[in-house]
């Protein structure tokens, strides 16, 4: 598998990474055996980047990833998000990115993963009550102590990225990016490129809308994030599924699938982009790695963007309260 660099002078990792969140949380029932098998197959296919969060499954995801990577640590670049707080019933009860909290969260993460250091550590959101300089400064202390190698940000706006980068070099920004989520192209992406910071997109299939397998009749339970998502609701869903059908016509012409084409589009946006693929099953992982073989011409890219105009996507990517938490959307 080809490699892409994280930040200026940073390490090279596989050009796609495995997002492990869905193996523990947010998308309904999970299968531990299949999850571990998927992580092992990712390693076999040359994937070295694995992304988790300490609040995914209230620690479950870190324990799962630590178990799957036991004896294979040297082959993995582990990125971890922190900051979200949850109660025993798994509801979200706040966010904390104070310097003391940073170090506390990290201590538990190291223990759950069974590792001596984290390759990249990042706040899951920008804490509105804590200057980003203080949060990044605390992670920088952990870099100096050897517990963290690189620092990232998640869902941060352009100004916040600049402020953070002035404290300690930021290696990447993790943010949702797909044919259905392109707001970052206006200010955030140019800022990253000016500063030499990589982009680590998640949600490249827009939570499954761009999988080509979603239908109007499909239902979700209350444990599934999508049951509360504006893009999966009512008239918004109807409109978005029509956009998917526009893309399917191009995919059919190229003898590929909607999902593979959507992933290939993200990969084609620049060598500084390292997408996460949220595969919970080996079959989903295979779709992602197949996308690496798709070459898109400039004409292909233009046709794809005409099929899914950014202005035509219906509904926000999160509900109203969650959108207000995104520094990247301010």
Automatic annotation (TrEMBL):
* InterPro entries cross-referenced by the UniProt entry: Aldo-Keto_reductase, NAD(P)_OxRdtase_dom_sf, NADP_OxRdtase_dom
Instruction: Identify the keywords attached in UniProt to this record, alphabetized.
Output: Oxidoreductase
Q: Which GO terms describe its molecular function?
A: oxidoreductase activity
Q: Name one Pfam family in it.
A: Aldo_ket_red
Q: Where is the NADP-dependent oxidoreductase domain?
A: 16-307
* Gene Ontology CC annotations of this record: cytoplasm
Q: What is this protein called?
A: Oxidoreductase
């Amino acid at each position: 598998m080809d490699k892409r660099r994280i930040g200026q002078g940073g390490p090279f990792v596989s050009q796609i990474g495995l997002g492990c969140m869905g193996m523990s949380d947010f998308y309904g029932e999970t299968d531990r055996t299949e999850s571990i098998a998927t992580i092992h197959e990712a390693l076999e296919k040359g994937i070295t980047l694995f992304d988790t969060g300490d609040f995914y499954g209230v620690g479950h995801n870190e324990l799962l990833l630590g178990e799957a990577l036991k004896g294979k640590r040297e082959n993995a670049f582990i990125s971890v998000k922190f900051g979200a707080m949850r109660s025993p019933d798994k509801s979200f009860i706040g966010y904390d990115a104070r310097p003391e909290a940073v170090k506390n969260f990290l201590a538990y993460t190291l223990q759950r993963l069974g590792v001596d250091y984290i390759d990249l550590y990042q706040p899951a959101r920008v804490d509105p009550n804590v200057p980003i300089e203080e949060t990044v400064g605390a992670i920088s202390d952990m870099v100096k102590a050897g517990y963290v190698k690189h620092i990232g940000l998640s869902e941060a706006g352009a100004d916040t990225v600049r402020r953070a980068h002035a404290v300690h070099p930021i290696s990447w920004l993790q943010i949702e990016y797909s044919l259905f989520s392109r707001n970052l192209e206006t200010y955030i992406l140019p800022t990253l490129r000016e500063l030499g910071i990589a982009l680590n997109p998640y949600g490249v299939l827009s939570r499954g809308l761009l999988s080509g397998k979603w239908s109007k009749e499909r239902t979700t339970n209350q444990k599934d994030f999508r049951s509360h998502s504006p893009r999966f609701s009512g008239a918004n869903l109807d409109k978005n599924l029509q956009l998917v059908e526009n893309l399917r016509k191009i995919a059919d012409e190229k003898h590929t699938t909607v999902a593979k084409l959507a992933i290939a589009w993200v990969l084609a946006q620049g060598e500084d982009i390292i997408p996460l693929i949220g595969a919970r099953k080996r079959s989903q992982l295979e779709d992602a790695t197949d996308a690496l073989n798709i070459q898109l011409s400039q004409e292909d890219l233009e046709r794809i963007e005409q099929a899914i105009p950014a202005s035509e996507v219906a509904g926000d990517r999160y509900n109203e309260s969650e959108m207000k938490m995104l520094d990247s959307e301010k």
